[in-house]
Design brief:
Length: 506
């Protein structure tokens, strides 16, 4: 495997994604919290950073642990750090360089640059530049404004590159990364979804033996894939619980429960709608809604888990980005910490935890799900927030409002599907606003709710843009909603990006 040491760059996860796309397994660690090297580690990549090696307090580590011992690739700050520690001169660029540049000199006899072409576009994003390098560093590529675009330490497999091979704007970035991880480090390209399933099922069998495991299904991709993996390993000893919190999409509880049963899962559907509605009664504040829903879920799940005799494990669909976040350079975030306060925990939380997806990125979870033959309706579904429709009904929640929003949402989502637009959209849904407006239907004056439609394009939900859905499509959906859903007489479309707005309205 490859280790990626994170110095705080926004692109670190992208490096990992690219390496995984080469079917090579890799792990990210913060530069100041790296586990000791084992034989499995075939090479190390140092990431970029928002910091400068010229800063008094710049992030650094003992390079002698890595350099010369195994292949090392420094990217941007990583390259500057290695050059700096070898006596190179790193200075602020006269112009900060962001964006495209072309390789104008290339020693492609070098193994790192094999098959790269002169004139190839590389993506730059740096404030500092490596001005001078000492004798023991050989410059192997340049662009018109950056002489030291790539270098090699003589006599060892240590490389530095000033550009970012991990971003898709670098034409041959993937070739360069392949040269490093496959040809220089000698990694096998055997990290595939099939291998993952095979290996993980065997590990789970060993770890869980005859123990019983409980898992909360949500209808989403992560919990579904986690369940199917564990099911493959231990069959009926996996007890799944799927809670109807009364805040799901129209008919979702029944259809998803059916799919789960169809997949052979041992799943219990729990109708807890009334408990959730009671807990939410009169609450208008979004954060208080989230708390009430979270608390109620824990109560319901705890009650159910107690009915499984002798259960030993709690399975969770935690994925790798959550793990990276909890290990990150800045330490665990405040919300992640709150899970760790022992004392007062419900009983199921005292179980041992098993998280079979905690090394995977989201797209890999989908690949694994497809390998496990999970239905496409589950694998390909849009993300849906845990608190469900509660944060799409502004102000207080009543069963009547849920009913209205479910119908609106259903028309919107099924129209997206039948128009072939569903897979082009990252997430879509409808919002029931507390605003009422005047309308006219037949000869009657109406005074009813305004609903908003939201459809966004995104990669990870961190940033998003609104989808340019065709006007005619929006016109049809709007007509359909107003004609069919009692209580709604106006439809608007949300054209805000994130930032500065967010995807959900609450
Ligand atoms: P925002 O609204 O923050 O949403 O732009 C980003 C992504 O997170 C989802 N989301 C949530 N998911 N519990 C969840 O499990 C929540 O409280 C929550 N709030 C937002 C949202 O649907 C989007 O995918």
């Amino acid at each position: 495997k490859i280790l990626i040491l994170d110095f705080g760059s926004q692109y670190t996860q992208l490096i990992a994604r690219r390496v995984r796309e080469l079917n090579v397994y890799c792990e990210i660690y913060p530069f100041n919290n790296v586990p000791p090297l084992t034989e499995e580690v075939k090479g190390v990549i140092f990431s970029g950073s928002p910091c400068s090696v010229r800063d008094e307090e710049h992030p650094t580590l003992d390079l002698s642990q890595y350099l010369g011992k195994q292949p090392v690739l420094g990217v941007c700050y990583g390259a500057q750090l290695i050059a700096h520690e070898h006596g190179g001169d790193v200075t602020p660029s006269t112009i900060r360089e962001y964006g495209r540049a072309r390789l104008s000199e290339l020693h492609n006899a070098d193994r790192l640059l094999k098959e790269l072409t002169l004139g190839s576009v590389v993506w730059m994003s740096h404030g500092d530049t490596i001005k001078e390098v000492p004798e023991n560093i050989e410059v192997i590529a340049s662009t018109p404004s950056v002489r030291v675009a790539a270098y090699k330490l003589r006599g060892q497999e240590t490389y530095g590159i000033q550009f970012h091979p991990e971003v898709t704007h670098s034409d041959e970035g993937k070739t360069l990364l392949r040269n490093f991880v496959v040809h220089i480090c000698g990694c096998q390209q055997d990290w595939t979804a099939e291998q993952f399933v095979e290996g993980t099922v065997a590990q789970l069998q060993e770890k869980l033996g005859n123990d019983k495991v409980v898992l909360g299904l949500s209808g989403g991709v992560d919990s579904s894939v986690a369940a199917m993996l564990i099911h493959q390993a231990i069959g009926k000893n996996l007890y799944c619980i799927f809670v109807d919190n009364g805040l799901l999409r129209k008919d979702e509880f029944e259809t998803v429960l059916d799919s789960y049963k169809h997949m052979g899962l041992n799943v219990k559907g729990v109708d807890a709608k009334d408990r959730f509605y009671a807990a939410l009664e009169g609450i208008r504040d979004p954060e208080l809604k989230r708390k009430a829903i979270g608390r109620t879920f824990i109560e319901v799940f705890d009650d159910e888990a107690h009915q499984i005799e002798d259960v030993k494990w709690l399975a969770q669909g935690t994925i790798y980005p959550d793990v990276i976040e909890s290990l990150s350079v800045n330490g665990p975030s405040a919300t992640i910490k709150s899970h760790h306060n022992v004392g007062g925990l419900p009983d199921f939380m005292k179980l041992q935890v098993v998280e079979p997806l905690n090394t995977l990125f989201k797209d890999e979870v989908r690949l694994v799900g497809r390998t496990l033959k999970i239905e496409e309706t589950i694998i390909g579904r849009h993300p849906f927030p845990g608190p469900g429709l509660a944060i799409r009904i502004l102000s207080d929640i009543t069963p009547q409002k849920v009913h209205i929003l479910q119908q609106v949402d259903h028309i919107f989502i099924s129209s997206l599907k039948s128009a072939g637009l569903y897979d082009d959209v990252w997430q879509a849904g409808a919002i029931l606003t507390p605003v009422q407006s005047v309308g006219v239907m037949g000869d009657e004056r109406t005074y009813e709710h305004v609903v908003a439609l939201r459809a966004v394009a995104s990669v990870d939900g961190m940033t998003a843009d609104w989808c340019r859905l065709p006007y005619d499509f929006l016109a049809d959906v709007s007509n359909d909603i107003i004609n069919k859903v009692k209580g709604v007489n106006r439809v608007v479309y949300d054209i805000s990006s994130k930032p500065p707005a967010t995807i959900e309205w609450e």
